[in-house]
Amino acid sequence: MSHRLEYRRYRLPFRSPVRTAHGLWCEREGLILRLEDEAGGVGFGEVAPIPWFGTETLPEAEAVLAGLGERVEGGCVERVDERCGCVRFALNCALRSDPGAIIARRLPVAALLPAGKPACDAAEEAMEAGFVAFKWKVGVLDDADEWVVLDDLLARLPDHAKLRLDANGAWTARRAVRWMERCAERPIEFVEQPCFADASEGAVQQRRVDDALLGLAADYPTPIALDESVAGLAGLRSWLERGWPGVVVVKPALAGNPAELLALLAANDADAVFSSALETGVGRQAALRVAFAFQGPQSRALGFGVGPLFKDARFEGIPPVPFLEIDAVNRLNAEVIWSALS
User: Which CATH superfamily is domain 2-94 in?
Assistant: First the structure.
């Protein structure tokens, strides 16, 4: 069936800059897609790339969509290179492709804590709201300063709470060893992407970092989670086929075809955490539908406790809550976000 393709670009300032090991992230840029079929049925998708994760850039995504033309067929996704996972994800969602049957109806959500000392007060507020899982950005301050905050943070959390640390690839292998030694003595759920090398650093450095990650996973009791390393479907496939023993953090908005993603995870019995790419409500709704269709060996909190994100609340769609229900996800009306861009 033929569909009319439209897309609109957005640039949305965050309410507060997101501080990571890559620096301050002040605004989100992306595209909202709208496909209308010959019978009047409408579907929406979102292209929300993160180039430093290895995705396509926004200009590359726009060029791909322009190349598809104003009218596309249902098989148009196959014309898009797998490297353009964000475009493939958006098109699949706008075509209303079914990622799979809903497995869960209600899932816990991890609250995202700010970097540095503010994490402690933010954790207190999140606990009062009912959160029982927390993610803290590390690799931003000196190690000694962050270790003080870590112990303060753990002292405030109840025994049943889970704390995961996210380094965003900021550490050298030597720093990662020091952190893993410290985490081995503390109740940390997992350490996310301690080291990372992108393609611009060359194949030799990438192999060194990959070997370091495998060594850390083998030598320490605290699990390692891969994030940047598995942002695209090709990277995820490569690590799972190598028998990665740890966790994989999956951002559906970056990973291409949702059905292929779920099939790959299922075939490898992957220990997966589904996470936001800081997208608008359109992409968030689609990504969460993928998460609710996953059945894995572990039950881990979703990495979607990231809002409110934007200064313009019309683009949020789904608020951060300690437990998220699929019915709330399905209630989002993507047409509202599309209209807000007109």
Answer: Enolase-like, N-terminal domain (3.30.390.10)
